[in-house]
Amino acid sequence: LIFSTQYRNPLDFSAAAMRDAEAGLDRMYDCLARIAGCGGGGGGKSIISPKDRKKIESLRPRFESAMDNDFNTARALGLLFDTIKVLNKVVSMLPAQPAGDDLELLRNAGDTVRELAGLMGLLRDDPAVYVERKKKMLLEGLDITIEDIEKMIDDRARARARKDWATGDTIRDRLLEDGIELHDGPGGTTWDIKLQRA
Q1: 108 has pLDDT over 90
Q2: In sequence order, what DSSP letters do the residues of 127-194 get, joined into one string?
Q3: Helix (H) or strand (E) holding 56
Q4: Which CATH architecture has domain 2-124?
Q5: Nearest residue to 83 (alpha-carbon basis) of 69, 66, 95, 100
C-alpha cells in the first residue's frame, strides 16, 4: 500500500485500499507459485509472443528507470503488476509439454519479479507456502475442506479422461458455487478461492 503512492503525495489509507493491496500481493504470489509448479520443458514450440517476451525481458530496466525517476515506487510497482499479468496469461496458455525456452523465460522472470519486489520488502515468503497458508485461512470461512476439493478435482480429471465433459463441467461449476476456481495447466489442475471483495 505504501509503495502504491509516490512519496510526495498523501497516502490514501482505507479498508478498500488495504483489501486491494492484499489482493495484489495474492496475485503476485499465486503467479510465482504457478510458475514454480510448471513441469519440465519439452521440445515444443514457443507460445510466448514477441510482444510479451519483450515486456517480460524489459522489466528490470523499466523498473530501474522508474525508481531512478524521483523514486517513483508507484510506477515501479505498476510495472511489477503488469509483468505478473503477462506471466499469468502465458502460464495459462502453456501446453502439457511447454517449450524449454518458455519455461526458462518464465522462471527467470519469476526470479526477477521476486528480486525487484524484494527491494520493497515484498515477496519474501516462499510462494507455494504463502499460497497454501492463504488457502487454509480462507477455507475456514467456507463449508468445504481441502480434501473435498482435491477429491472433486480427481473426479473431474477422471471424467475428462473419459471425455465426459458434462460431468467435468458440473464439478467445476459446483466448486465455483462454493467459491473455488479451477485453473487447468501443464502441471495439472490447481485451484484458488474466488473472493467476493466488498
Answers
A1: yes
A2: HHHHHHHHHHHHHTTSS--HHHHHHHHHHHHHHHHTT-HHHHHHHHHHHHHTTEEEEEETTEEEEEE-
A3: helix 50-57
A4: Up-down Bundle (1.20)
A5: 66
What percentage of the chain carries pLDDT values higher than 70?
91
The domain segmentation of the chain, as residue ranges, is 2-124, 129-193
135-144 exposure pattern, b = at least 16 Cβ within 10 A, e = fewer: eeeebeeeee
110, three cell numbers: 519469476
Of 126, 98, 100, which is closest to residue 114 (Cα–Cα)?
126
Cβ atoms of residues 111 and 137 within 8 Å: no
Average pLDDT over residues 2-19: 66
More confident residue, 43 or 146: 146
Distance, CA of 116 to CA of 62 (rounded, Å)? 11
| Rounded alpha-carbon distances, angstroms, from residue 125 to 14, 47, 130, 168 | 25, 30, 6, 34
Place of cell 525487484: 116
Length of the chain: 198
Please state the pTM of the whole predicted model.
Answer: 0.79
Report the pLDDT averaged over residues 24-38: 92
Other CB atoms within 10 Å distance of the CB of residue 162: 10
Instruction: Give the Cα separation of 189 and 153 in Å (integer).
Output: 7
User: Quick one: pLDDT at residue 198?
Assistant: 35
